[in-house]
Write a structure and sequence with these properties.
By secondary structure, the protein is mostly helical. Helix content is 59%, strand content 4%. The termini are far apart.
């Protein structure tokens, strides 16, 4: 089960490592079809904010309580991790040259602050429904929070791979 500390520790891996990059390395792509660190970070920020938007939409209503998530989502949440595979998604990724380290750090800190507020709401809200995930069906606020942390953690290995390619080039 995810906690606020788990979420913070996972996100802090990305925040703290920003100190190790320069702008050129941050935006370096190994190939036109691969992501730079900047694009990976942007993906995490954009998607996590979207997950949190879905989480927030659950509060104050009892919508979709009768609906459940897909079996593959239940399995992932029980295992508390994504499968160890590369997943091709349809996420919007900004142009590489428009992503800067200082802005990325500010966005990650805002995301961390948002996670703290949402954690408190999850644990204090009396009424909450479920919101639909496009691939996994309906998730509760706690499941959205857990999913967000799992998604960030899933990208740690990808971050390491990109870092290693930068070091070897």
């Amino acid at each position: 089960m995810v906690t606020d500390t788990t979420f913070e520790n996972t996100l802090n891996v990305f925040i703290e490592d920003l100190e190790n990059y320069d702008e050129n390395g941050f935006r370096r792509q190994d190939s036109p079809n691969s992501w730079s660190l900047a694009q990976l970070y942007a993906h995490i920020i954009i998607d996590t904010n979207w997950y949190f938007d879905q989480l927030e939409s659950c509060f104050g209503n009892v919508l979709n309580l009768d609906k459940s998530m897909e079996d593959k989502a239940k399995k992932m949440l029980l295992q508390n991790s994504f499968p160890d595979i590369k997943i091709k998604g349809n996420s919007y990724i900004p142009v590489n040259d428009s992503i800067f380290i200082n802005t990325t750090k500010k966005d990650l800190i805002l995301l961390l602050e948002r996670s703290r507020v949402l954690w408190k709401r999850i644990n204090n809200e009396n009424i909450s429904g479920k919101a639909e995930h496009p691939g996994f069906s309906y998730l509760s606020p706690m499941e959205w929070y857990q999913f967000a942390e799992m998604h960030i953690r899933h990208h740690i290995q990808q971050k390491k791979e990109i870092e290693n390619k930068i070091k070897s080039s």
